[in-house]
Automatic annotation (TrEMBL):
IFT121-like zinc finger domain span: 1247-1293
InterPro entries membership: Beta-prop_WDR19_1st, TPR_IF140/IFT172/WDR19, WD40/YVTN_repeat-like_dom_sf, WD40_repeat_dom_sf, WD40_rpt, WDR19/dyf-2, WDR19_WD40_rpt, Znf_IFT121-like
Protein name: Anaphase-promoting complex subunit 4 WD40 domain-containing protein
Subcellular location(s) per record: Cytoplasm, Cytoskeleton, Cilium basal body
Domain (IF140/IFT172/WDR19 TPR): residue spans on this chain: 652-1017
GO biological process, one term: intraciliary retrograde transport
Cellular-component GO terms for this entry: cilium; intraciliary transport particle A
Residue intervals of the WDR19 first beta-propeller domain: 20-332
Length: 1310
């Protein structure tokens, strides 16, 4: 063999370009005027001698007849596979056969070099010549499946004929035709057979002719760079694959909307392409190139999958099953194994696959080294593998080998008919033959059986074997279990239709099957229950996951995808199967063999094993902490580790509880600290009955229908009734009670009736109340529902004397809504609803009854309606009283004025109610009676401003109106601005500046008001200036007004100063405290100079208090001057009381500041000298007397005291004066003289006592309750014994009102 053809499976003798024809198991090769027939293993079967070089070679569609023709010979040789004898036949035309081809029903077409045709029927031996089919040599032909024959000839024409040779169509072509074929065009309307004939014209274009439609040919032209068409084939759903000499491989569509559209384009052989052939079943296309290579391409993927070395390869031919491909090479006919037969089998732990045409390898799922390789004497059509053996066979024979390195053959079995499927366990084999399962031991013949024995069970369609049992399904829906230990049938289940697939879990406790309706079910032998699986209708197979510890898991698959399902035997809803994740897409041509831990083993056309992970399991691998993925696979142990957050724990707990995994659910709820759920789950876990446990778990999850179903199957079905009652689902509770607890029906009916009554379904509620007769409160419910349903007589009859007030009220409301007013009024009165009863009697116009009820009625509307009725009757006094009670003073006043002529009572009503409309009525009456003042006053009181203004204008009472408006504004704080402005404009027009300014001020027009008021003050109006101060003070945002008023008061405008107290008031009102303090000090200074010491004192006291009241701190100048003035006033008080020492000390303080008392300097010094003398203060008396003897004071001495003072000065100082007593400083507690008001140590000015003039002390501190000035408590109390007023403010004070204060911090600031 040429070493470059070393990829070939075998090489057969043959010359380059030799013809090759394949049958199922044989291949025919034309070589040197002979045809060699070989089998698939390269063994020669026969040799057929020819008379010349073979130019035509083909098998019939059954593969039983081989036809061969020679160049320039009218003789054709037929060879039968059964007899293996050549049989010559002659066309009968004496012309060389240029083309031959088998059609349906063993009809052989023979075309001649002169354009004639002979149809040979092999079954009858009849020949039918058809002359003149074409005018020149026929070069190509093809049969359709429907029996149409298409021929192309050198006369550039195409003909289509019937099986009898009758011509249907003839089409003229533009160039010489070649490679004629039939195909199926892809259409949208309906499927068509292969009624479209195609032909290559001039080696460049492709003609397509739709025979059945009579359409004109469609011509497909291709890009010039592709070169000439070397070969083409139809494939798939109306697609064409073309190979071009430039090395291109192009797939095009024939769909009308995409005709000529290129699906894909390859250039596998840049050096040139010689030939191309397709194996559609294997999804492969082969191309032979000038580069000496054969390349295999995927038809669906459009990609190159394999490269074979074949120098000089051409004339590619596929075997009928697409596994082998032959090529005419320089070394002969090379046969390559393109793909192995998809022969494979697997059990839970190993797989057996065909690794060559006569070798089976057994491997573990990890796909490492094979456990065993078995050489076979035949090419097997099936294999089987078990825990200890591997079997292979074909037809009705099976060879059994032990799983070992030697793979020794241990048994051979020949069955009565062809084996379609074989299953193995460790010691038993089960072969499906002709609808029966032959069960036997493998290495000995200890036992053997054929099942089913009963023909009524039908024919077996699928079977599966486990270590313990054989499970099979039949075409009549029987699913049977044959026990291999007992060697007998132990269980039989009858399904509704035929079973197609049976798959058993490794333990045998669950059996999944696919029925004839494309539905998948799981059968549980222990419970004999069947659970539906939501599988795809296209399901072709079922596999159970064999991984230990995994929840029961199976996949259903078809050729495109596999879907995972987890099976739960115990859950709140019983056993069920649930889909896991989305379907997993399977590689093209790959078929699942086994499943372990979510990993699926696949076997494909290339003979290799592959692995793929299901989507649900792959999600866990990608995200190990994905709670959803773990829960979908029911991996609760791993899910517990993944659940961290509260929502995750809650989800885990609910999922575990749903699947009755109580331990996991309890752990999760405990971590969630949900004590209620923990107790509920513990109760469910402790329930002995499985159904009761499931019901309690479903109840925890809110799955009430499921819970009811479970409770009803349990030993305590009454739990379902209890649940529905607790949920207030009364209809269902009543249904359950009728069968479970009839004695509870009345109670449940009453509760249901109450709910229906609440929702307004009164007819149904009445029926339920009647059903619940005898229950408490049913009589009341019956009464209410009877009234609502219109049965008034019955409803009232149920309301006896014992009816409750609440019931009577409800029934009264019901009757009123139903327009049964008399009855409603009667019940309302019985229930104490007197107002409602009166309203109903009003609607009934039952006035006597209304009059009886009015004393108990407070509702205004009832009284108003009664009043109108009495007015209509002319009983006005009663109507007035009713109108007043109803809150309608207008109507009452109207009757009093118009009908009863009682204006005093009308005025009284208006004053009490301040009703504007009533006031207008009375005002009109009073005006007509000549009492304008009272009329105007009523209008103002009642807020009838516009009417009051108009009335005042007409009556000339604008001043009165202004006063009334001002008084109204002062009383309620709200000024009627618009009316005040009108009044102001009126007086301004009347040239009354004062009144105009006053009312403008009240209306908030400060600027204009100040101008007018100053104008009035300038002409001597005293009150105008005070109002101007008020107006300027009120205008906080207009400081220039205050400046104008101050200038006017100071006389800057007219040179005449006015009352400065107004400036102080203005500053205080505007909050200008510092300026106010300065003005107060100046005013006091002026008064003090004039000798008005009390007026100065009061001015400073008022300023001091107002400053403190506004949160300000009086300045030191004000405080010190006030202390000095108060010392003088206090000294006079103590002189009168005979307290000479205290008076002397105070007068000494005043004398030290005698310059501030210029008007009475000499009298004050004189009094000081006298009092000091009386008090024994000789030094102070001498010093003050010396001051009086000075020239500035001596002339003014009172002659009455002159001699005495001169005597004090002459005597001089004889005895030293006793030192002044000390007391602690209230700030730093430093001892200092009692009358000292400044501490030399802490430098603080000290508050003075208003009773003694001394500085205050901490432990004897009090306040005047009126002016809140500080005082020494003992001294103040002593003063009050003789004087009952505060020496500072003049207010009366009782000793009992004084209290000693401990916290002096607030007062030491002053």
């Amino acid at each position: 063999m040429d070493p470059r053809v070393q990829d070939a499976l075998l090489t057969l003798p043959g010359s380059p370009g030799a013809l090759v024809a394949w049958q199922k198991s044989l291949v025919a090769v034309a070589h040197q005027q002979q045809v060699f027939v070989w089998d698939r293993r390269g063994r020669q079967v026969d040799v057929i001698a020819l008379s010349g070089t073979c130019n035509g070679l083909c098998w019939d569609e059954e593969g039983d007849l081989l036809a061969a023709s020679c160049e320039r010979s009218a003789r054709v040789v037929l060879w039968e596979t059964q007899t293996r004898r050549p049989q010559p036949i002659v066309s009968g035309l004496g012309e060389g056969v240029s083309w031959l081809g088998w059609g349906p029903n063993a009809i052989l077409a023979l075309a001649t070099a002169k354009g004639n045709l002979v149809l040979y029927d092999h079954r009858s031996g009849r020949r039918m010549p058809v002359l003149g089919k074409h005018s020149r040599q026929i070069v190509s032909g093809a049969w359709s499946k429907a029996g149409l024959l298409a021929l192309a000839a050198e006369d550039k024409s195409l003909s289509v004929s019937t099986p009898d040779g009758d011509t249907l169509r003839v089409v003229a072509l533009r160039a010489e035709p070649s490679q004629i074929k039939f195909g199926r065009v892809k259409t949208e309307d309906k499927p068509h057979g292969d009624d479209t004939v195609s032909v290559v014209v001039g080696k460049k274009t492709l003609y397509m002719l739709r025979v059945s439609e009579g359409d004109e040919p469609v011509e497909l032209a291709f890009q010039p760079r592709y070169g000439q068409v070397a070969a083409y084939e139809w494939f798939g759903d109306g697609y064409i694959l073309l190979g071009f000499t430039a090395g291109f491989l192009v797939a095009v569509s024939t769909h009308p909307k995409e005709i000529g559209h290129e699906l894909f384009q390859l250039q596998p052989h840049p050096s040139g392409l010689k030939h191309m052939a397709i194996a559609a079943d294997a999804d492969l296309a082969a191309t032979a190139g000038a580069d000496g290579q054969i390349k295999l391409h995927s038809l669906t993927a459009g990609e190159t999958k394999r490269v074979l070395n074949a120098p000089g390869a051409t004339n590619l031919t596929w075997s009928s099953d697409g596994q082998l491909i032959s090529a005419s090479c320089t070394a002969g006919i090379a046969v390559f194994l393109a793909c192995l037969p998809t022969v494979a089998a697997a059990d839970s732990s190993r797989a057996a696959i065909l690794t060559s045409l006569s070798e089976v390898s057994v491997t573990e799922p990890n796909f490492q080294e094979p456990l065993s390789s078995v050489r076979l004497v035949v090419e097997p059509s099936w294999v089987a593998v078990g825990p200890a053996h591997v079997a292979a066979g074909m037809n009705n024979r099976a060879w059994f080998h032990r799983l070992s390195l030697s793979a020794e053959e241990v048994a051979t079995k020949e069955y009565l008919s062809r084996v379609s499927c074989l299953k193995l366990n460790s010691r038993v084999a089960a072969a499906l033959c002709a609808g029966r399962v032959h069960v036997h031991t493998i290495e000995d013949v200890a036992a053997e059986a054929v099942v089913p024995e009963d023909e009524s069970d039908g024919r077996v369609t699928a079977h599966e074997i486990t270590n313990e049992a054989l499970v099979y399904g039949t075409d009549v829906g029987v699913l049977a279990i044959f026990h291999l230990q007992q060697w007998r049938l132990v269980q039989r289940y009858r399904h509704s239709c035929a079973l197609k697939i049976v798959s058993t879990e490794a333990s045998g406790s669950r059996v999944a099957f696919l029925d004839d309706h494309h539905q998948v079910f799981i059968f549980c032998p222990l419970t004999e229950s069947v659970i539906a699986v939501d599988a795809s209708p296209s399901t072709e197979g079922i596999l159970w996951d064999s991984w230990p510890g995994e929840a029961a898991f199976l996949v259903t698959f078809d050729s495109q995808q596999a879907s995972g399902h987890v099976f739960l035997r115990d859950s709140v809803r019983g056993s069920y199967a649930e889909a896991v994740a989305s379907p997993t897409k399977l590689p093209n041509g790959q078929r699942p063999l086994w499943l372990a831990g979510g990993e699926m083993g696949l076997h494909g056309p290339d003979g290799r094993l592959n692995r793929i992970m299901l989507e649900g399991h792959a999600a866990v691998l990608r995200l190990p902490d994905s709670l959803d993925a773990l829960l979908s696979l029911r991996r609760y142990k791993e899910a517990w580790s993944a659940a961290v957050e509260r929502p995750q724990l809650k989800k885990l707990a609910e999922a575990a509880l749903y699947d009755m995994e109580f331990e996991v659910a309890l752990r999760a709820f405990r971590r969630l600290k949900d004590a209620g759920m923990v107790r509920a789950v513990e109760a469910a876990a402790e329930a002995e009955d499985r159904f009761e446990s499931a019901g309690m778990a479903a109840l925890c999850l809110g799955q009430y229908d499921i819970a009811e179903h479970a409770f009803l199957q349990s030993d305590r079905p009454s739990a379902a009734l209890e649940m529905r009652s607790s949920l207030l689902e009364w209809p269902r509770a009543l249904e359950l009670a009728a069968s479970l607890a009839p004695d509870q029906v009345p109670l449940l009916a009453k509760q249901f009736a109450q709910q229906l009554e609440f929702t307004g379904e009164h007819a149904q509620a009445l029926a339920q109340y009647e059903r619940a007769s005898g229950q408490v409160d049913c009589r009341a419910g019956l009464a209410r529902c009877a009234l609502r349903c219109g049965d008034v007589r019955r409803g009232l009859s149920l309301l006896d004397e014992t009816a409750s007030v609440d019931l009577l009220r409800e029934c009264a409301t019901i009757l009123e809504s139903g327009r049964h007013l008399p009855e409603a009024a009667s019940l309302a009165e019985r229930a104490g609803l007197y107002e409602r009863a009166a309203e109903l009697h009003v609607r009934l116009k039952n006035w006597p009854k209304v009059a009886q009820l009015l004393p108990r009625v407070t509702a205004p509307r009832v009284h108003a309606q009664f009043a109108k009725a009495k007015e209509a009757e002319g009983r006005y006094a009663e109507a007035v009283a009713a109108y007043v009670t109803a809150g309608d003073p207008e109507a009452a006043v109207r009757l009093l004025l118009e009908k009863l002529r009682r204006p005093e009572e009308a005025v009284k009503i208006v004053k009490e109610t301040r009703n504007p409309e009533a006031a207008k009525q009375v005002a009109r009456f009073l005006r007509s009676a000549g009492d304008a003042t009272s009329a105007l006053q009523l209008l103002v009181w009642c807020g009838c401003a516009s009417e009051a203004f108009e009335f005042a204008r007409q009556a000339g009472e604008m001043a009165l109106l202004g006063r009334l408006l001002a008084a109204e504004a002062a009383s309620d704080g709200a000024a009627p601005i618009a009316q005040l402005l009108e009044v102001a404009r009126h007086f301004e027009a009347e040239q009354d500046a004062f009144l105009a300014g006053k009312f403008l001020h009240l209306a908030g027009e400060s600027q204009r008001a100040v101008q007018l008021l100053l104008k009035a003050a300038a002409v001597g109006h005293k009150e105008a200036l005070e109002v101007a101060v008020e107006a300027a003070a009120a205008a906080q945002h207009e400081p220039h007004l205050a400046d104008q008023v101050i200038q006017f008061i100071c006389g800057d405008l007219d040179g005449v100063p006015k009352d400065f107290s107004l400036v102080l008031r203005l500053y205080l009102t505007r909050g200008q405290l510092e300026e106010a303090a300065q003005v107060a000090v100046l005013m006091a200074e002026e008064e003090q100079k004039a000798g008005n010491y009390r007026a100065a004192h009061d001015t400073l006291l008022t300023a001091h208090q107002q400053l403190r009241a506004r949160g300000g701190s009086p300045p030191e100048a004000l405080r010190s001057r006030l202390a000095l003035l108060h010392s003088y006033i206090l000294a006079r008080l103590h002189v009168r009381r005979g307290q000479h020492l205290m008076a002397a000390r105070l007068l000494s303080r005043v004398a030290a500041n005698i310059s501030k008392f210029p008007a009475h300097a000499v009298p004050i010094l004189t009094s000081a000298v006298i009092e000091c003398g009386r008090a024994g203060l000789a030094s102070t008396s001498f010093r003050l007397a010396s001051m009086l003897m000075r020239p500035m004071h001596r002339p003014h001495l009172d002659p009455k005291y002159k001699r005495k003072i001169e005597s004090v000065v002459r005597k001089g100082l004889r005895d030293p004066e006793a030192p002044e007593p000390t007391s602690p400083c209230p700030h730093c507690l430093q001892p200092l003289p009692e009358y000292e008001l400044a501490c030399s140590r802490c430098k603080n000015n000290l508050p003075f006592c208003i009773a003694t003039g001394k500085h205050v002390v901490r432990d004897d501190f009090t306040l005047c309750p009126h002016c809140e000035f500080p005082a020494i408590a003992s001294g103040f109390s002593e003063l009050l014994e003789t004087e009952n007023v505060c020496p500072m403010c003049g207010a009366e004070v009782e000793t009992a009102a004084l209290s000693t204060l401990e916290d002096l911090s607030e007062y030491l600031k002053v």
